[in-house]
Amino acid sequence: MNPSVSQSPLAGQIALVTGAGRGIGAAIACKLSSLGAHSILCGRSRAALDHTAAAIQKSGHQSAVIECDVTDPLSVESLAERVEHTFGRLDVLVNNAGIMGPQGPLHELPPEAWDAIFNTNLRGVYYMIRSLAPLMIRARSGHIINISSLAGKHALPNGAAYAASKWGLNGLSYSLAEELRVHNIRVSVICPGSVHTEFSPHEGKNAEKMLQSSDVARAVEMLVTQAPQSFVSEILLRPTQKP
Length: 243
Prior knowledge:
The protein is an alpha/beta fold and 243 residues long. Helix content is 42%, strand content 17%. It has six helices and nine strands, in the order βαβαβαβαβαβββαβ. The protein has helices spanning 23-34, 46-58, 73-86, 111-139, 160-180, 213-224; strands at 14-18, 38-43, 63-67, 92-95, 142-147, 185-192, 195-196, 211-212, 234-237. Strand 5 (142-147), helix 5 (160-180) and strand 6 (185-192) form a beta-alpha-beta unit.
């Protein structure tokens, strides 16, 4: 272990990130580990998660890999049981796993595509909170961060289902924050604009002007290192110049 970890702001804390195998999730997991947290990397692809874990280990920090499908309540419940049995606590939960789905007019979207988008982007977050928030409630401490999108604040033609799922996620986050603040648990939502990742490269846009995964990770860092008497409930993250 890196000897500087003991002086790190999240030293001794346990952080869990969904969709941690690549892109934004991988960047967030690496950032939380660099802050001293023991990061739990969750996702459906073991190979991708192992790649993130190797990067964290190379930097001298700790992580654990647990395969989980956030759309499957039994998979999420199994994850929660492993977290409680192995670590006994959870300090930071980042619900990052999400999908965009096919582009096009809403009336042409197949019902199965609608279901896939909502099952991952919204229902999956509910499953994670249902299974893991009790750990935080018992400890009377914790931070839940939901990765949403500016599409959850503004119209997104030809992406109505994705936008609707993110509008729903924002509403869930605001209401959850009010429910859990009495337990000393902070709930925040980050709404980034277009982020250039391997998973979502956004063809036709200037990648150098787009947000990067590291930008979202830095926003997470700000949230988890706030003074205990306050919390930022929402971050709107935009590129300096339109790509």
